[in-house]
Amino acid sequence: MSLLSAIFLLPLLAALVVLCIPRNYKFVIRLISLGATFAAMLLALALFARYDAAPVENGFKFVERHAWVSVSALKLDIGWHLGVDGINLGLIVMGAIVAFAAACVSREIKRLEKEYYTLLLVMTGGILGAFASLNLFFFYFFHELALVPTFIMIGVWGHGENRNYATFKITIYLSLGALLALAGLIALYLQSGANTFDLVELTKKVKSRPLPLAAQSFIFPLLLFGFGILVSLWPFHTWAPLGYGSAPTATAMLHAGVLKKFGLYGLLRVGIPLMPDGAGAWLEILALLCLGNIVYCGLVAMRQKDLNLLIGNSSVAHMGFIFLGIASLNLVGVTGAVVVMVAHGFLAALTFGLSGALREKTGTLELEKLGGLLRQIPFLGAALVMAMLAGCGLPGFANFVGEAMVLFGSWRVFPLVTTIAAWGALIIGAVYMLRAIRNILHGPGKPEWAELQDASAWVKVPFVLLLGALLLLGIWPRLLIDKIQPSVVPIIAMAEAKSADKAVRPSDLKKGAEDAKQRAVRPR
């Protein structure tokens, strides 16, 4: 088993082991789940440490290929193809770290633990497998494998009176988004004429013979809105705050932090490089829609009286920055978008994890019922303050680095949209984040919280891990950026060398890459 395969197959194998263990062996089930996610995290960190950003042919490293299904009569070729570059490397590492943190906070589950941990491990394996796959069949299959447990976990172990409604709503929305994306991927397969779902081969085919403009104009919107619904693009976002507010803590951490990045990753990996002409017609619209995420969802967050709903709307608002960076389609903006994807994954997991810890201790997340908790729970309170400030874009955290790059990159293309986004995020984000800090942690203490105990040493582990990742990448951003940029350059180059009437020559890609590098440092 290769290093890359082991990262996502270990959780899936652990899920099979948990299924074979009697349900009364709760400690063993939990231990296996923690061990599998911890091992996957260590392997992902080893992958990150061993990754060399130097360019290679086809752009991917740690490649693993095996034939699986090949039917010449049906023109069908599906194979096991894994690989990493600078774009999915950070997502895999972030996903593995968040998965271990999610397993750590799952102590809140007190019933049907065997089924819960089985679904958690399947969700983890599916997420990591989707990001590692370079075959569109398995790319989509692993996403669905991770998505189905989300619906079940919210319905069975969710919180609140609206959990059944939230389950139906998130199921309908995400199923619709997944079907639109599937239709787009199938249409891409048919129109390319490559007779394979292999992403590398598809890319080669499209470089030599670009898709007709009519096909691109039809397929790209399917992918944009299919992936967009999965990522909670405004106005298709209403499932997200309600779903996360009702979800178990670990489910919200994994979905909001990691799985939701699948749609963004799909646009960067499939939509824009393979259909640049189709993308060009929609980028301005995408830039305008992202203002709905940043401004509208930020205003909705200001009105929330429940911490989970506030965090859910804030998470949707942050997606707007990633869409804005992708829409800018230059080296600085797209690199910043990938950095925000990684940083937001850590931040979303941290904030939902902390809200779960507060709910377990107080029994409520209503802001008006809380107050003065910093005295009773100084560690959890301090971690919440740091998480909220990171969400505001405070320098020193990874979120600031990514969002600043997005704003610099998008300013060159959409100055008005960038101005509104910057001021909206700065003012609106600060208002609801600082308001939450004030209502939860400061002010006079309430008698009912006088006996609260702070987090134990074990409970602190996932929060220290997530905070450490945010601070490390905020203080030393080149650790991630230097790995991302070489993989972003070919995407920008293909977009610049686009033509629906002629093949993309290697000289075109080289010139496009040089132009992209120059625009990254030259003001307009």
Walkthrough of the structure:
By secondary structure, the protein is mainly α. It has one domain. It is 73% helix and 4% strand. It is built from 21 helices and two strands. It has a two-stranded antiparallel sheet. A hairpin with a 4-residue loop joins strand 1 and strand 2 (76-84). Helix 14 runs antiparallel to helix 18. The longest helix is centred in the middle third of the chain and has 32 residues, at 331-362. It starts with a helix and ends with a helix.
Give a topology summary.
Blueprint: H1 3-19, H2 26-50, E1 61-71, E2 76-84, H3 86-104, H4 113-132, H5 136-157, H6 163-192, H7 199-208, H8 213-230, H9 239-246, H10 249-259, H11 261-274, H12 276-280, H13 283-302, H14 307-328, H15 331-362, H16 378-391, H17 398-411, H18 415-441, H19 457-475, H20 478-496, H21 506-521
Antiparallel strand pairs: 1-2
Helix pairs in contact: 1-2, 1-4, 2-3, 2-4, 3-4, 3-10, 3-15, 3-19, 3-20, 4-5, 4-10, 5-6, 6-8, 6-9, 8-11, 9-10, 9-14, 10-15, 11-20, 13-14, 13-18, 14-15, 14-17, 14-18, 15-16, 15-17, 15-19, 15-20, 16-18, 16-19, 17-19, 20-21
Q: What is the helix fraction of residues, given as a range?
A: over 70%
Span between N and C termini? Answer: 49 Å
Order of strands in the sheet with the most strands? 1-2
- How many domains, in number, for the residues? 1
Main sheet properties: 2 strands, antiparallel
Report low-confidence residues grouped into runs of 5 or more. 499-513, 515-524
* Total strands: 2
Order of helices and strands: HHEEHHHHHHHHHHHHHHHHHHH
β-strand amount? under 5%
